[in-house]
Amino acid sequence: MSVAQDLWQANQDLAIACFNNAFVQGIYSGTLPRHKFAYYVGQDAFFLESFARAYSIAAAKAPTWEGFGTFHDLAGGVLSELRLHQSYAQSWQVDLTQISPGAATRRYTDFLLATAWSQDTSVTTAAMLPCMKLYAYLGQQLARPAIPEHDYTDWIKTYSSPEFDDLAQQLAVLAEQAPRTAAVDAAYRYAMECERDFFQAAWDIEAET
């Protein structure tokens, strides 16, 4: 079993918790309240900007030219994802320039950037793997047996697509090129906890009155 697969299996409890979260299930059924998704769109856009920066930091620290190129390619994938969020923001009337990160968002982005700056690329890769793998997993699960048609169809299409899965696989390949350490395991686990809390924070947000 590869490092990425082993880490994923070791954290199945958190993957299942994310899948069963009311926010994710609301996306699947199309019943998620609009204000919760609008909040998520803004928070995720803020998160993705930090994710792209972490990729760029990792690229600069990559010990091989191959790793440098892969991290840059992945940063480009995040920029494409951000364009999707900009489209969402227009549709859902979210002003991305006015977003203030919530506590769960800030916890996650601070962790990613601190890891990218202070750790070697093996730990940074482990910290970033959960987001990519988890979203591919959620998209593929929500697309079974067929992608439902409702307000959140594009979200499911994006994360269930072969193109997104390819990006996740590129990062998984990088995980094989460095030693498995306690720091790698801890970073992966912490990121998975951040993913769970990120969805829960979006579910918990109340509508403005």
Q: In the CATH hierarchy, what is the class?
A: Mainly Alpha
Globally, the shape reads globular
- DSSP strand tally: 0
CATH architecture: Up-down Bundle
Percentage of residues in helical conformation:
over 70%
Summed up, the helix count is 10
Percent strand = under 5%
Residue windows where pLDDT falls under 50 for at least 5 positions: none
Mean pLDDT: 91
Cα distance, first to last residue? 51 Å
* CATH homologous superfamily annotation: Heme oxygenase-like
Order of helices and strands: HHHHHHHHHH
Radius of gyration: 16 Å
Major sheet description: none
CATH T-level fold name: Heme Oxygenase, Chain A
Count of distinct structural domains: 1
* SS class: mainly alpha
What is the structure about, briefly put?
The chain has 209 residues and is mainly alpha-helical.
Please specify the SSE layout and strand pairing:
Blueprint: H1 3-10, H2 12-20, H3 22-29, H4 34-61, H5 65-92, H6 103-118, H7 121-142, H8 153-160, H9 162-175, H10 182-204
Helix pairs in contact: 2-10, 4-5, 4-6, 4-7, 4-10, 5-9, 6-7, 6-10, 7-8, 7-9, 7-10
Commentary on this structure:
With 209 residues, the chain is mainly alpha-helical. It has one domain: Heme oxygenase-like (Heme Oxygenase, Chain A, Up-down Bundle), CATH 1.20.910.10. The protein has 10 helices and no strands. The protein has helices at 3-10, 12-20, 22-29, 34-61, 65-92, 103-118, 121-142, 153-160, 162-175, 182-204. The longest helix is centred in the N-terminal third of the chain and has 28 residues, at 34-61. The chain is globular.
